Amino acid sequence: MLKISNLGGPPVNKHALVVTGMLIVLVVLLFLTFLLDGLPGAGIFWIVGIGFGITVQRSRFCFTSAFRDFFLLGQTKTLKGILLGLAICSVGFVMIMSTTVPDPSFGFPPSDAHILPVGLSTIVAGVLFGVGMVVAGGCVSGSLYRMGEGYLTSWTAMFGVMIGLFFINNSWNWWWDNIVSHEPKIWLPTDLTYVGALVVTGALLLLVLYFAVWRERKATAGFVMPSIKKRAQEIGPPTTSFAEIFGYVKTIFTKEWSPLVGGIMLAVLNILLFIRFHPLGVVGEISRWTTSFADSVGLPELSLRGLEGLGACAMTVAEGSWFTDGFFLVCGIVAGSALSAVGAKEFKLRISKSPRRYLQTIAGGIVMGYGAGLGLGCTLGGFFSAIPSLALNGWVYAVGLTVGAFIGVQIIKRIP
């Protein structure tokens, strides 16, 4: 471990200084968010984003790997974490929604929940997103956290996502006029009550879990890969107060988290954000960046029909300041992942030597971005926040994701 001299005093841990410096910068930025006029929630979104980035980096919680590994290797480790997160999130969301809409039978769901039109557009969006995320090597949120780890290909994948969002922004009105505007919003508690909808959601999650475990045991012939634990280093007691405090923080970064822990943490973050604002989602903000860049180069300003009142991760056109709640959430994910990667000594600038790899990530990103825009959400907003909202569109999107991921796996098998 690198250490630097302290003018004849005890050695100073250079790695500790770097992590502490990053923490100080993030805290300073947090205080600056409270100085922004008209954005009372910016600091909250910044904290949630950082927490999200740390969680997914330490637990390797990746929606893409959950679907890809299930079809490619028959493994369900991450998938189980997703299902657990969905179950916890569903209970939390019901508690929140039942306070704002005590009687769901009137058919007026909470405006902030991710309840969207469901139909052909949802299926198409899910399939496109599923194909794109597997080809690109990560979904939108997964690409964001890998950007913080130093993966250059994740940056090119995000570039592709923005291109895909640009394409869907310019074709959205056709989809709205011909398909989306004719599709219904189906909120399960309207007909089933909160309890009935929660029971159905739980039963479906258990059914998916049973099928996943059955297929895993069939694919592996019942063999379970034993976990490999790193040999613990014998470290003496801390010699200073700073060393003791840093030891507590270091534990968070040095120990790998289980995907089950990752699922629990993401569910808690999603619930906490929904209590005051709205569920997690990043596509709407990235879509805003896309329209901002298009506007800056002189492209015609878009007028997107039907987006008012849709909520979730609905696309928005460029207006006002760059600094929004969504901006701090998205950037917080990258910052939190970078902090976690540096703290765990896993940060490294990873530059692929294969030009084909960059083309693959951009192409996958384009398909993924188009699907995310059409479905008004990615695996985060259109899936992980939609199913707990007890909305049928979340389940239909999940079916599309599953089909798309299967197709994507067949594609990458043929890529040399």
Number of strands: 2
Distance between the termini: 39 Å
Strand/helix succession: EEHHHHHHHHHHHHHHH
Number of helical stretches of at least 4 residues: 15
What kind of sheet is the major sheet? 2 strands, antiparallel
Structural class: mainly alpha
How would the global form be characterised?
globular
Helix content class:
55-70%
Summarize the SSE layout with pairings.
Elements: E1 3-4, E2 12-13, H1 14-33, H2 42-59, H3 63-72, H4 77-100, H5 120-136, H6 140-149, H7 152-178, H8 189-220, H9 241-254, H10 259-276, H11 283-296, H12 325-343, H13 355-374, H14 380-384, H15 392-413
Antiparallel strand pairs: 1-2
Helix pairs in contact: 1-2, 1-12, 2-6, 2-10, 2-12, 3-4, 3-15, 4-8, 4-10, 5-13, 5-15, 6-7, 6-12, 7-11, 7-13
Account of the 3D structure:
There is one protein chain. The protein is mainly α and 416 residues long. It contains 15 helices and two strands. The chain has helices spanning 14-33, 42-59, 63-72, 77-100, 120-136, 140-149, 152-178, 189-220, 241-254, 259-276, 283-296, 325-343, 355-374, 380-384, 392-413, and strands spanning 3-4, 12-13. It has a two-stranded antiparallel sheet. The longest helix is centred in the middle third of the chain and has 32 residues, at 189-220. It is globular, with a radius of gyration of 22 Å. The two termini are 39 Å apart.
